[in-house]
Amino acid sequence: DTAVSQTPKYLVTQMGNDKSIKCEQNLGHDTMYWYKQDSKKFLKIMFSYNNKELIINETVPNRFSPKSPDKAHLNLHINSLELGDSAVYFCASSQWTGALRGGELFFGEGSRLTVL
Amino acid sequence: QQQVKQSPQSLIVQKGGISIINCAYENTAFDYFPWYQQFPGKGPALLIAIRPDVSEKKEGRFTISFNKSAKQFSLHIMDSQPGDSATYFCAASRSPGSGYSTLTFGKGTMLLVSP
Questions:
Q1: Is residue A53 less than 8 Å (CB to CB) from chain B?
Q2: N or C: which end of chain B has fewer CB within 10 A?
Q3: Residue in B23, B103, B104 to test binding to A, most A beta-carbons within 10 Å
Q4: What local confidence, expressed as pLDDT, does residue A52 receive?
């Protein structure tokens, strides 16, 4: 039973299109995240939600819009896709332990987005 | 400003050898230092973590060494195996008080253990 699952695993699309990635966790965590991993493997946090409330927004272009309908779900919608958006997007979850003070991040398997 | 610097970028080790990955940090408020392991096509997963009140933590073949005065910490993989071939990320975070903080990741080290 997958702890953090994201769909789709692969997206290939044209510049200018809009796409969404969905994430669900069944760990009972109350904090969820979106990370972007570029071609050089660098992991950068994009957003974090705690109990459906946005708590971290790391200067991501407003073409990226996260939505958390409940504690177990966090979706990412991207408008007007650009070549530079090509990356692997990871969803993660954790317990709210004073924000990662000893808290483990659980990652999904990633969604590889390729913009042509 | 990169707050956690990781080296080397890539590493090739013979089977049975010791793999050593180093990280240095700048923020003296950091008080939690985990290492994550990522296999191709998978998400990162917590491998081992340390707090600055100890200088070393060992779990099986994996050891973290921590030098608070030098603001450095390292991962040692003893008796490295081909199955250890993965990308390793060091990270750091601080106790946020009443607010919150996030994990700051190093840029990763691609480890290849040759048979």
A1: no
A2: N
A3: B103
A4: 84
Query: Measured between CB atoms, does A3 come within 8 Å of chain B?
Result: no
Q: Cβ contacts of residue B88 below 8 Å, gap of 6+?
A: B21, B35, B36, B37, B38, B47, B75, B108, B109, B111
For A109, the closest of B43, B49, B101 (CB atoms) is: B43
Per residue in A38-70, pLDDT tens? Answer: 998 899 999 989 888 888 888 789 999 999 999
* Minimum-distance CB partner of A45 among B36, B96, B102: B102
pLDDT in tens, B64-109: 999 999 999 999 999 999 999 999 999 998 766 556 667 889 999 9
